[in-house]
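General statements about sequence and structure are easier to judge against a single worked case. No coordinates are needed to read the tokens, only the vocabulary itself. The sequence in question and its structure tokens are set out directly beneath this paragraph.
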Amino acid sequence: MDIAKQINTAIDVICQGETYFSSGISKIVQSHFNKMN
């Protein structure tokens, strides 16, 4: 297995995870503010 390929795959997975995590947080924050208003 090519090490560079493994590293690129790991970075892709981490970036996808961060995007999913960020969108999840923004949804929680939005619903929280909607309850307050």
